[in-house]
Every structure is written in C-alpha cells, then in structure tokens.
Amino acid sequence: QVQLVGSGGGLVQPGGSLRLSCAASGSIFSIYAMGWYRQAPGKRRELVATIAERYTKYADSVKGRFTISRDNAKTVSLQMHSLGPEDTAVYYCYGQISPYPSWDAQDYWGQGTQVTVSS
C-alpha cells in the first residue's frame, strides 16, 4: 500500500511563513507527481502546487509566495510565505503514484493538515 503523510501545518500570523512536508512510503514503483491541494470551509478543494519531473505548477493565488520543492525521491515540501487569512484551509498532500511496474499511476492522498492564518 501507498501512504502519504503530510505535516507542518499550524497557526501563523498574517504575513508569516510555514513549511509543509509530504512523505510517500510503502509499495512505490514510480512517482509521477506530488503536491498539495487545499480546502477552505464551504469551498471546493483546489490545487495549490504540484511538482513533477519536468514541471512545477502553482495556483495563481499563490504564485510568488509559495515554493514547492522535492527534498528527495519520496518527499516534497511546500514553503509558504506572506500568508494571509485567505490561505486558511486544510492542506492535503497528494501523489500520482504507480505502486507496481504494470500498474497505471493512481492518485493517493494524505490525511490533511490544518493551516490557520490569524492574528
């Protein structure tokens, strides 16, 4: 089984910074992409950032403030700066992962970590 564990959320004041990490473990043949989605109360889940071998992608709302990076083959981090109340949400780590050589990539999700931006 593939497991994704996200960490690093918390409470931060407006203008502050946080760093989220997402670690994949288990039966992994290949990781095609990893990243983060977020969901604020009453809103749909939205893509925040994703990183693959040949590209990174950001939501327009976080460009210039958030940076996604790959720490190693199975861990990615999301550095968030200039946080505002609009960034308050549960952040979900995800991965497009093929667990076995003959399997197509599937989407796997972490448990979610709360980010709260408030004074």
Defining traits:
mainly beta, 59% strand, 119 residues
Description of the molecule:
This protein is an all-beta fold and 119 residues long. It is built from no helices and 11 strands. It has strands at residues 2-7, 10-12, 18-26, 30-39, 46-52, 56-58, 66-72, 75-80, 89-98, 106-109, 113-117. The strands form 2 sheets. Strands 2, 4, 5, 6, 9, 10 and 11 form a 7-stranded mixed sheet that branches. The protein has a 4-stranded antiparallel sheet with strand order 1-3-8-7, with no helix packed on it. The radius of gyration is 14 Å and the shape is elongated.
SSE diagram, text form:
Elements: E1 2-7, E2 10-12, E3 18-26, E4 30-39, E5 46-52, E6 56-58, E7 66-72, E8 75-80, E9 89-98, E10 106-109, E11 113-117
Parallel strand pairs: 2-11
Antiparallel strand pairs: 1-3, 3-8, 4-5, 4-9, 5-6, 7-8, 9-10, 9-11
Strand content: over 45%
Estimated helix fraction: under 10%
Biggest sheet character: 7 strands, mixed
Number of helices, where a helix is a run of at least 4 consecutive DSSP H or I residues: 0
Give average pLDDT, whole number: 96
Report the strand count.
Answer: 11
H and E order? EEEEEEEEEEE
Rg on CA atoms, Å:
14 Å
Shape: elongated
Tell me the span between the first and last alpha carbons: 40 Å
Query: Structural class, from helix and strand content?
Result: mainly beta
Uncertain ranges: none
